[in-house]
Amino acid sequence: MKETISACITAGNEEKNIRRCLESVCGWTHEVVVVDSFSSDATVEICRRYTDRVYQHEWLGYIGQKNLIKDLAEGQWILFIDADEEASPELRDEIVRLFERGPPPDIAGYEFPRIVHYLGKWIRHGEWYPDIKLRLFRKGLGMCAGREPHDRVVVEGRTARLRGHLRHYTYDNISDQVNTLNRFSSIAAQGMYEEGRRFHWHDILLRPLVRFVKGYAVKRGFLDGFQGWVIAVSSAYSVFLKYAKLREIGLARRAGRAPE
Predict the structure, then answer these.
(1) Which of 115, 147, 169 is the last residue of a domain?
(2) For residue 57, what are the domain limits?
(3) H helices of 160-200, where?
(4) pTM to 2 decimals?
(5) pLDDT tens across 151-173, in order?
(6) Does the N-terminal or the C-terminal CB of the chain have fewer CB atoms within 10 Å?
(7) Is-contact 247 186, C-beta < 8 A?
């Protein structure tokens, strides 16, 4: 390929997923870089079987960790991929063909659809699909931004879209999903409070309903059957949790104590 690509993986206790992720990027990218947040399982051991570019660093958040690994990479292009994701063969082949010709000089980054495997099924409707992600970009023209825990890549320049899928093997089960919703809603509520957002009753009364209708009806999540129903309900619940916790933080701060 005419320009080099660094596959950058952030990981933490991902021994169940990391091998699949590594195998999807090894052999066609120019290097694979892993930053592990001091896993207590076999994640690091598995990674070192595939690459010698394995580092450990304290967790800086979803945004901070990705910007750290970007700086460690040596390639001209960065491919961000999470440990519970994999590049599909179609996406891999599409990128290889593109880089064999050489990407256009005016393109700063490429986005592509992410498809989620959830409760034994690939989700093809609702809010989860197509989940377009900008993950491949010129190192000098992009960085990770957003609001925790939802990171996103921003670039200086034009972007183009590829057709191949990034596959996401999300929650192991519904209990795993509930635990993640609880953790993410706490992070989001704290971030909102620090940005000056305050609780309003209309947010907690209307936003969860709007989220459900949007995902289940407008974006046709009902076509994914039982899984589509669970996704729509849990997405609405995550919105409810976020605003309920925002109120909890506000009450705790006014009382002069830290929220529990």
Answers:
(1) 169
(2) 5-169
(3) 174-194
(4) 0.90
(5) 999 999 999 999 999 999 999 99
(6) C
(7) no
